[in-house]
Amino acid sequence: MSRTESLGAYLRAQGRRRLDRVEVSDDGRNARCALALLDAAAYAESLAEDDPIVEMLEQAGCFGPLGFDEFSPGEEAARFIREWVGSEPHELLLALPAVAASA
Length: 103
Fold this sequence. Notes:
By secondary structure, the chain is mainly alpha-helical. It has helices at residues 3-20, 29-46, 52-59, 75-82, 89-102. The chain contains five helices and no strands. The radius of gyration is 13 Å and the shape is globular.
Protein backbone atom coordinates (compact mmCIF):
# COMPACT_ATOMS: atom_id res chain seq x y z
CA MET A 1 0.00 0.00 0.00
CA SER A 2 1.40 3.41 -0.93
CA ARG A 3 1.69 6.24 1.57
CA THR A 4 -1.16 8.17 -0.06
CA GLU A 5 -3.37 5.07 -0.04
CA SER A 6 -2.53 4.46 3.61
CA LEU A 7 -3.29 8.09 4.51
CA GLY A 8 -6.55 7.97 2.56
CA ALA A 9 -7.58 4.70 4.20
CA TYR A 10 -6.91 6.14 7.66
CA LEU A 11 -8.93 9.29 6.97
CA ARG A 12 -11.75 7.28 5.40
CA ALA A 13 -11.94 5.00 8.44
CA GLN A 14 -12.13 8.01 10.74
CA GLY A 15 -14.87 9.52 8.55
CA ARG A 16 -16.90 6.31 8.66
CA ARG A 17 -16.42 6.19 12.42
CA ARG A 18 -17.97 9.66 12.66
CA LEU A 19 -20.87 8.61 10.43
CA ASP A 20 -21.62 5.76 12.82
CA ARG A 21 -21.54 8.04 15.85
CA VAL A 22 -24.99 8.99 17.13
CA GLU A 23 -25.41 11.90 19.50
CA VAL A 24 -28.81 13.41 20.13
CA SER A 25 -27.78 17.04 20.22
CA ASP A 26 -24.71 17.25 17.98
CA ASP A 27 -26.44 19.68 15.59
CA GLY A 28 -24.98 17.82 12.60
CA ARG A 29 -21.37 18.06 13.83
CA ASN A 30 -20.69 14.35 13.29
CA ALA A 31 -22.05 14.51 9.76
CA ARG A 32 -19.97 17.61 8.93
CA CYS A 33 -16.87 16.00 10.39
CA ALA A 34 -17.50 12.77 8.48
CA LEU A 35 -17.92 14.61 5.18
CA ALA A 36 -14.77 16.65 5.76
CA LEU A 37 -12.77 13.51 6.55
CA LEU A 38 -14.13 11.59 3.56
CA ASP A 39 -13.30 14.56 1.34
CA ALA A 40 -9.79 14.69 2.83
CA ALA A 41 -9.38 10.96 2.17
CA ALA A 42 -10.23 11.38 -1.51
CA TYR A 43 -7.87 14.36 -1.73
CA ALA A 44 -5.04 12.46 -0.01
CA GLU A 45 -5.38 9.54 -2.40
CA SER A 46 -5.11 11.93 -5.37
CA LEU A 47 -1.71 13.24 -4.24
CA ALA A 48 1.51 12.01 -5.80
CA GLU A 49 3.84 10.02 -3.57
CA ASP A 50 6.42 12.80 -3.79
CA ASP A 51 3.94 15.61 -3.04
CA PRO A 52 5.37 18.07 -0.50
CA ILE A 53 2.48 17.38 1.89
CA VAL A 54 3.26 13.66 1.88
CA GLU A 55 6.94 14.44 2.41
CA MET A 56 6.10 16.71 5.37
CA LEU A 57 3.98 13.95 6.93
CA GLU A 58 6.86 11.52 6.46
CA GLN A 59 9.33 13.92 8.10
CA ALA A 60 6.91 14.29 11.03
CA GLY A 61 7.09 10.52 11.54
CA CYS A 62 3.54 9.74 10.42
CA PHE A 63 4.74 6.82 8.28
CA GLY A 64 7.03 5.26 10.85
CA PRO A 65 10.72 5.90 11.51
CA LEU A 66 11.81 4.92 8.01
CA GLY A 67 8.83 6.45 6.20
CA PHE A 68 7.46 3.19 4.78
CA ASP A 69 4.94 2.05 7.39
CA GLU A 70 1.19 2.57 7.31
CA PHE A 71 -0.04 6.02 8.28
CA SER A 72 -0.03 6.39 12.05
CA PRO A 73 -0.17 10.02 13.17
CA GLY A 74 0.29 9.64 16.91
CA GLU A 75 -2.26 10.41 19.61
CA GLU A 76 -2.36 14.22 19.37
CA ALA A 77 -2.69 14.21 15.58
CA ALA A 78 -5.24 11.37 15.72
CA ARG A 79 -7.35 13.48 18.11
CA PHE A 80 -6.96 16.47 15.78
CA ILE A 81 -8.16 14.34 12.85
CA ARG A 82 -11.11 12.91 14.78
CA GLU A 83 -12.35 16.43 15.57
CA TRP A 84 -11.69 17.97 12.14
CA VAL A 85 -14.63 19.93 10.74
CA GLY A 86 -12.68 22.21 8.41
CA SER A 87 -13.75 22.71 4.87
CA GLU A 88 -10.57 22.30 2.83
CA PRO A 89 -8.76 18.93 2.77
CA HIS A 90 -5.35 20.49 2.19
CA GLU A 91 -5.76 22.54 5.39
CA LEU A 92 -6.07 19.34 7.43
CA LEU A 93 -3.07 17.73 5.76
CA LEU A 94 -0.94 20.86 6.08
CA ALA A 95 -1.75 21.16 9.80
CA LEU A 96 -0.98 17.51 10.62
CA PRO A 97 2.84 17.62 10.55
CA ALA A 98 2.96 20.41 13.14
CA VAL A 99 0.42 18.67 15.36
CA ALA A 100 2.25 15.33 15.06
CA ALA A 101 5.63 16.92 15.74
CA SER A 102 4.38 18.80 18.81
CA ALA A 103 3.47 15.59 20.63
